[in-house]
Design a protein that fits this description.
By secondary structure, the protein is of the alpha+beta class. It is 25% helix and 18% strand. The chain contains 4 helices and 6 strands. The strands form 2 sheets. Strands 4-3-5-6 form a 4-stranded mixed sheet, covered by helices on one side.
Length: 158
């Protein structure tokens, strides 16, 4: 059975990034979108990233256009939006699918590890998966969960 570090994904710059690069870190993996009611969560995600990065924590953003077409842009447009509107410095990856036959293998793994309230499918943008230093998926949080409310959970894993 593969673990979280066995996966890779393309960055917004088009570089293939092995998640092994994040081994030993606490991770918050989030499917994102630029035109969603939850888009302002980028601000809270960036605050978490900046606060905890020195302690080996990272937010990983995975843009997805499967929910209401709320991430229509290409990689450079997504990157420009995140930088200009939210000063995002955490790693952002190329647009992926999180559900269906074309779902990214990482998301198939995350959904197998932690089902949501209504089953394993991702229901909307900004679903959050918390991963401990050993690469174990410890929690799944709904899109309505504000990033700031995860501080205690992150602290407990650091």
């Amino acid at each position: 059975m593969p673990g979280i570090y066995d996966f890779s994904a393309k960055s917004l710059a088009g570089e293939e990034v092995s998640l092994q690069r994040f081994e030993g870190q606490v991770l918050l993996i989030v499917n994102t979108a630029s035109q969603c009611g939850f888009t302002p969560q980028y601000r809270g995600l960036e605050e978490l990233h900046r606060e905890f990065a020195p302690r080996r924590f990272a937010v990983l953003g995975f843009p997805c256009n499967q929910f209401g077409g709320q991430e229509p842009g290409n990689a450079s447009e997504i990157g420009a939006f995140c930088t200009s509107n939210y000063d995002v410095t955490f790693p952002m990856f190329d647009k992926i699918d999180v559900n269906g036959s074309g779902a990214h293998p990482l998301y198939n793994y995350l959904k197998r590890e932690k089902s949501g309230l209504l089953g394993s499918a991702i229901k909307w943008n900004f679903t959050k998966f918390l991963v401990d230093r050993a690469g174990q998926v410890t929690a799944r949080h709904a899109p309505t969960t504000r990033p700031e409310s995860l501080k205690k959970d992150i602290e407990a894993l650091l």
